[in-house]
Amino acid sequence: RKRVLSGIQPSGKLTLGNYIGAMKNYVALQEEAECFYMIVDLHAITVAQEPAALREQTESVAALFVAAGVDPKQASIFVQSHVPAHAELGWMMTTLSYMGELERMTQFKDKSEGKDAVGAGLFVYPSLMAADILLYKADLVPVGDDQKQHLELTRDLAGRFNHRFGDTLVVPEPFIPKVGARIMSLDDASKKMSKSSPNAGSFIALLDSPDDIRKKISRAKTDLGREVVYDPREKPEISNLLSIYSNCSGESIAEIQARYEGQGYGAFKKDLAERVVETLEPLQRKYAEIRASGAIHDILRDGAERANAVAEQTLREAKEAMGFLLPR
Ligand code: AQP
């Protein structure tokens, strides 16, 4: 069986972008592969987090995984800081990373732009992400398009490690959805939809109420003209809304385009809002049930146990290969 690893930061309210770009594939992969899905709190603190909010969001993201259809019996759901091997191999990967390659990461450039105090954690984020993946010897990593560059670095680091210390780590492949790999912001289609955006109108949170969803979509920016056509270069805003529609309804972009021919943006947006509401309603219902049941702690304990078993083994192999004296 192939092994799959992916993670999401508890750094805000999960968005429709996280769902379409990553979580939908979590569910699709769990039957055929051995899956590890984690809530990456060590990554979240690369940007300042309020402690109470971090704790609440960590639990909330875990419950959202289950609500979205991840089955904790089939897949291991766990919190990154519950598996100490991440921090350890993360440090080892940091020592193998070059400043130059980390400086080229667009996420670092975006998140540090215009700030005068930039945390070092933000800079070495990709080294920790490499450790996350390599600990599980993952074959596949389901992520949105924005993580492609980090995954490329993970592949380079695994190759570098194996070259210097002998074959130890598995070089992973990205698993990126065809439509919706990059859901854009509702107020600016040149930026990805992001949970840490200061403008709540720019994203749809998975737990937004139906009315909020309707409001946000009706206010979403549109391009000049009135034709609903998919053309990311000339009509980036409408194209983004079309790919959200297609992901929620399961129809092809061509089918949707044909339906709204000659109808203008208004009718399209109104229906799109309903498609999003219909997609999120069952998830929200299940989320409320899980939170009320208190089952999440057992799920996370179980997940961490399975994750630790695999991660500790790889860490031991990596330490041995690098020349660490293992305790006897
Ligand atoms: N807009 C998006 N479209 C498609 N996929 C997306 N992902 C994130 N945004 C989109 C995918 O979701 C997974 C989890 O991402 P993350 O929590 O590690 O953080 P991120 O990629 O940095 O996402 P955010 O929402 O923008 O978080 P913040 O604002 O906290 O940095 C990844 O697989 C990602 O590809």
TrEMBL record:
<comment type="similarity">
    <text>Belongs to the class-I aminoacyl-tRNA synthetase family.</text>
</comment>
<keyword id="KW-0648">Protein biosynthesis</keyword>
<dbReference type="InterPro" id="IPR002306">
    <property type="entry name" value="Trp-tRNA-ligase"/>
</dbReference>
<feature type="binding site">
    <location>
        <begin position="144"/>
        <end position="146"/>
    </location>
    <ligand>
        <name>ATP</name>
    </ligand>
</feature>
<feature type="short sequence motif" description="'HIGH' region">
    <location>
        <begin position="10"/>
        <end position="18"/>
    </location>
</feature>
<protein>
    <recommendedName>
        <fullName>Tryptophan--tRNA ligase</fullName>
        <ecNumber>6.1.1.2</ecNumber>
    </recommendedName>
</protein>
<keyword id="KW-0030">Aminoacyl-tRNA synthetase</keyword>
<dbReference type="GO" id="GO:0004830">
    <property type="term" value="F:tryptophan-tRNA ligase activity"/>
</dbReference>
<comment type="function">
    <text>Catalyzes the attachment of tryptophan to tRNA(Trp).</text>
</comment>
<dbReference type="InterPro" id="IPR001412">
    <property type="entry name" value="aa-tRNA-synth_I_CS"/>
</dbReference>
<feature type="binding site">
    <location>
        <begin position="192"/>
        <end position="196"/>
    </location>
    <ligand>
        <name>ATP</name>
    </ligand>
</feature>
<feature type="binding site">
    <location>
        <begin position="9"/>
        <end position="11"/>
    </location>
    <ligand>
        <name>ATP</name>
    </ligand>
</feature>
<keyword id="KW-0436">Ligase</keyword>
<feature type="binding site">
    <location>
        <position position="132"/>
    </location>
    <ligand>
        <name>L-tryptophan</name>
    </ligand>
</feature>
<feature type="binding site">
    <location>
        <begin position="17"/>
        <end position="18"/>
    </location>
    <ligand>
        <name>ATP</name>
    </ligand>
</feature>
<keyword id="KW-0067">ATP-binding</keyword>
<dbReference type="GO" id="GO:0005829">
    <property type="term" value="C:cytosol"/>
</dbReference>
<dbReference type="InterPro" id="IPR050203">
    <property type="entry name" value="Trp-tRNA_synthetase"/>
</dbReference>
<dbReference type="Pfam" id="PF00579">
    <property type="entry name" value="tRNA-synt_1b"/>
</dbReference>
<dbReference type="InterPro" id="IPR014729">
    <property type="entry name" value="Rossmann-like_a/b/a_fold"/>
</dbReference>
<feature type="short sequence motif" description="'KMSKS' region">
    <location>
        <begin position="192"/>
        <end position="196"/>
    </location>
</feature>
<feature type="binding site">
    <location>
        <position position="183"/>
    </location>
    <ligand>
        <name>ATP</name>
    </ligand>
</feature>
<comment type="subunit">
    <text>Homodimer.</text>
</comment>
<dbReference type="InterPro" id="IPR024109">
    <property type="entry name" value="Trp-tRNA-ligase_bac-type"/>
</dbReference>
<keyword id="KW-0963">Cytoplasm</keyword>
<dbReference type="GO" id="GO:0006436">
    <property type="term" value="P:tryptophanyl-tRNA aminoacylation"/>
</dbReference>
<dbReference type="GO" id="GO:0005524">
    <property type="term" value="F:ATP binding"/>
</dbReference>
<dbReference type="InterPro" id="IPR002305">
    <property type="entry name" value="aa-tRNA-synth_Ic"/>
</dbReference>
<keyword id="KW-0547">Nucleotide-binding</keyword>
